[in-house]
């Protein structure tokens, strides 16, 4: 414990991990609900769009194939799981973005909606990068450490909040311009809210490199981190 206390508190607060077994559970739950059910089903539903299907199916197949590693051996690949889960966050957010665009496209009366797609894609990129910058600021300002201290009222980084709120509002404005259906507004609003969560998953990419940068500290705190299951103390599996 004394050794842990000598390590910077902000680093300790960020280097908190779930067990490999919990990592595996995350993949199963989030893939089935957020990607396969909420993401893929609307993408292939009527009115079917071959263009949106092709744009979405390649990253979907890629991330599912990559997930096999962490389903069968989450212990050995414990470190790279964070890179994988971060990329998954981007893929899932991208698929939701495609579904929003598909909803908009299905309700525009004729003509191309290239402009709305470009604007939507810019909003998507702004959300991903905004969340990344916000996450870094939360580390630098000790927000994660304060969140783990009972009795503190902490405001989430304004960058994270602005990125999420801006994305939802931006998509709603696009929806309002082209369609006045309340149902459409609700769908886009819910997709937008879910995008904030899946986009936040992408911060695990930064965590992957942060772990690599502080490898010695990680090994000091979690000596079994990244070891195969057979080499771990059964008590901590």
From TrEMBL:
Keywords in UniProt for this one? Membrane, Transmembrane, Transmembrane helix
Q: Which residues cross the membrane?
A: 27-44, 50-72, 81-100, 112-133, 154-178, 184-203
Note the superkingdom of the native organism.
Answer: Bacteria
Can you name this protein? Answer: Uncharacterized protein
Please tell me the species this chain comes from: Cytobacillus stercorigallinarum
